[in-house]
Specification:
This protein is of the alpha/beta class. The protein is built from ten helices and six strands; from the N terminus they run βαβαβαβαβαβααααα.
Amino acid sequence: MDTEIRILLVDHQSLVRHGIQRLLEDDPQFHVVGEAATGDEAVELARNVKPDVVLMDVQAPGIGGMEATRRIRRVSPESAVVVITVEVSDPFPTQLLEAGASGYLTKHCDISEISDAIRAVARGERYISADIAREMALSMLPGKEQSPFDRLSQREMQVMLMVTQGQSVHAISDRLSLSPKTVSTYRYRLYDKLGVENDVELTHMAIRHGIVNAVPSA
């Protein structure tokens, strides 16, 4: 039998985690060694259990999927991260790959593609689903309209995601190990680069560009 692949699942929805776990464990090569609901939990679990592969929800609460990916690669360098996103047109696959992700999938893919991605990254390869690769290629064509969020650095994107989750400057400061003054500097730099004046306008812009999901009204 092939070598067992130990997997950590990260998703803010327990139903999604349990569903993926049941599907994966139909394959005797896969063993789910942990589940996390937030980016912070994912980093701590990765540090402790050293999984071979992490399936990472890009919208994970807390520090988020991008920062969690970066930290996991630091605390468990042998763990390969496969990022899973809801949107094919997610505007920052390149930034996540630069942060250390080895794979990129959408939640619309079937279990066979997840399995293929897990096996590929466990072998030390990269895996990007065809639909995301096509979007990345199209985004580089001349005349293609660029997202204003493409102007942001990795750290600015991370702060932006946390601001749009409603996290305070002090909460972001604690989670990213930055001073509150530095976080505020990043925040106002975001406003300047994106042409917005406050967190509400920033959140509305992020929703319009598909970076964060709108919260359904009650």
